[in-house]
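Many introductory courses stop at the sequence. We go one step further.
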Amino acid sequence: AEMSGTNHQEVKPVWNSRYQNPKIPHDNSYYFKCMIAGILSCGVTHTLVCPLDVVKCNMQTNPQKFKGLVPGLKTLISEEGARAIWKGWLPTAIGYSMQGFCKFGFYEIFKDLYSNAAGEQNAYKYRDYIYLTASASAEFFADIALCPMEMVKVKVQTSPAGTFPTAFGPAFAAMNGNRAETRFPFGSVGPLWSRQIPYTMAKFYFFEKTVEMFYKHLLTNPKDTYSKGTQLSVTFASGYIAGVVCAIVSHPADSLVSQLGKKENKGKSIGTIASEVGAKKLFTAGLGTRILMIGTLTGLQWWIYDTFKTVFGMGTTGGAVAKK
């Protein structure tokens, strides 16, 4: 009898995070759809806010001239014409599509990978650490994918009119042909990591926690009993709240990335640039604009991402349920 008892133990299926919800298995087609959703989520939103981005980058690199969002837009349009506010839209679209592909797709993969490594009980108990490590791991690769286009974009957006080509082809060629000076294609990957990894960790962590709070305290029935519209509203609100936190956390590093594109900072170390600009400026220059931009952006990104997932019957993200 004892023998059959031990054999019986071995048959018990091993818990697998990928098959937590038998209706929606996380197979390769699931991950691939998440990658496509990520392309839409990041590519579309970053391209839409390109005018805000142009002004923000210029407020960071030339605060004497660009004193705020509205005056900044006016300055740009009066000096360079209405099309100037869309400078760098194409490298933005390409770069952030590649970033979104990796950021969201790899997040889902790493989340399952780390959950399986932890095992069923620990995966729930230590889910906060899993959100943080999975998002950091995904962003590490996402930034390598983004970096070349980000460098082209910043150069195009912050170079004074007439000093650098604004069309994508010539701009790319100029960056590539002058690698010694531009540090193209991966020169900005360090500052990008320092800006994007804390930002993404905050973005995914606070999103997951806010969704949990909604379903724990406000909408207390099981998540799938609510309509898709309600679930997507929770997604948007949680994304917006996460975005505001993110903007504040990552702003100093974002200011540095913009400073690195400036002509007069060529060849200076990041430490030197930081001390010259000063802490107050690094933390506050352009922050209001960035909170508005990143809050809306993050809310929209999660909303697009989850809408895509909902359309394909994959359910919305977040709202971890404890095993009864």
